[in-house]
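Lab notes, practical 5.
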Amino acid sequence: MINPKHKGNWLKISLLIINCISVIVLLFSYAAAYISPIKFWILAFFGIAYPVILIINLVFVLLWLILWNKYIWLSLLVIVLGFGHIRTIFPLRFGSPKTHAEHSLRVVTYNVHSLYGNHADDMLPEARSQVTDFLALENADLICTQEFYALGEGYMNTLHKFSRSIRLENFFFKNYRDFWQKTKINAIATFSRYPIVNEGFFRLEDKSTFGIFTDISVNGDTIRVYNLHLESIRLGEDDYKFYSNLTDPADEKSLSQGSRKMIWKLKKAFILRAMQVDILRSHMKQSHYPVLICGDFNDTPSSYAYHTLSEGRNDAFVKAGDDWIGSTYAGRFPAFRIDYMLYDDFFTAKSYQKKEVDLSDHYPVISEFTFNH
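Output from the prediction step:
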């Protein structure tokens, strides 16, 4: 007969081993923010899984608390070590933002999903009209859009019509690819109430545009706005089908092929995003103006991409948001916060809001900033 005491000891030892593994994995998820996927791409997978890994460690804290065991400190200390990561998911604040400035800037960033809407049967003109009406009602001073798509007439006519509709007459855009026809737009576009005095774009060799910047003159101050759309995982219908069927019985060959394909796509996206943000970081260091970063990063707050661009800057969600987790992606993949507004200390975020409108596979993010002089 097994001694109950020995059985209890084995259970405790087994739990302790699993807890140690979960702590190591949590440390890996922290490391993902600091180590470039170009050097060690496997860590990026731990970064994506951070919320799940955090929950597992919190369960162990609760478990050891119930058992009143000294091992409670094992996970608790490592969780506290990553407090900065927690704040990017749960915006814990003490007090409201203090503002002193005279000028404010209302900003929207929105991946408009090619203006097709969020359903397969949506008609382009109807979806475009709804997005236009929504943006016009926001009465923003600055709107950063990604996946701005139009076809049928001269692109400048389209952009002028759109800018007048949203009452922002100044704009700069850059197509993801260079098209020979002058009637096609598939672009990253920034629309501004204030004059644009300089602009530029970013593109890896033989790859599509992943960002633009505009220097904007606002009541005597010049700010630099980066509008970004970092590398996507580029999931197709077969990938979504594979993901949705993971819990269903499937043959091992299909599971193996689907897994390898998904891992390859994720790996490629991790590495390309790392290359993109390294270019952006170098460019931003040369800026003589306060920097505001908006856009779709296609990556989580635990990623190298987010950490690189947010280093030394503030996150509007962290400083002024009140939505736990704050997922900005409305598609079929797991919900993550992948759309951001990051900013230098020249700005203060007075508010942050995500609007759950069903017009895209992303939700628009709106924030109001004041200038600190």
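Observations recorded by the TA: The mean pLDDT is 86. Residues 4-87 form one domain.
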